[in-house]
Amino acid sequence: MKLEPDCVRAILLTVEENTSYQSLLSFEEATLPDFPRLTEYPLDEVLYHLKKCNEAGLLCGAQFFYDSANVEGLHFRGHEFLENIRDDSRWHSVKKGLEAIRNYSLPAIASIAESVAATAISGFISG
Predict the structure, then answer these.
(1) pTM for the whole thing?
(2) Contacts 24+ apart (CB under 8 A), 27-35
(3) Which residues contact 82 (CB under 8 A, 6 or more apart)?
(4) Angle, nearest 10°, between helix axes 88-101 and 76-85?
(5) Spatial CB neighbours of 1, under 8 Å, sequence gap ≥ 6
(6) pLDDT tens string 24-78
(7) DSSP state of 56
(8) How far apart are CA 72 and CA 8, in angstroms?
């Protein structure tokens, strides 16, 4: 399956919005409609992207089963990553960069997002 950057972003936003210190999030066929950001993705695609986010160290307490997954929340690294892609206009810039280099890997997304965020910070400081 191909990595879909929009799905990664939707998952991270969903995890952040729906977890707390004492709760975990369950991704399964019955709960998927509860997450508006994920309605356009089938369960197998969501689970695949959850695994990739977990492998990249973006999630905490992820458990995977045959047709479901549980997630406790975002890892510190996941919060950093999400902060760089949260803003819609910044995300649009990141996606343009990904298209330009034709690399849709998580490290490429993170690198471009960090660069876009650094540019925004630099403009704020010098502005």
Answers:
(1) 0.91
(2) 27/68, 27/69, 27/70, 27/71, 28/67, 28/68, 28/69, 29/67, 29/68
(3) 9, 12, 13, 16, 74
(4) 90
(5) 44, 45, 48
(6) 999 999 999 999 999 999 999 999 999 999 999 999 999 999 999 999 999 999 9
(7) T
(8) 16
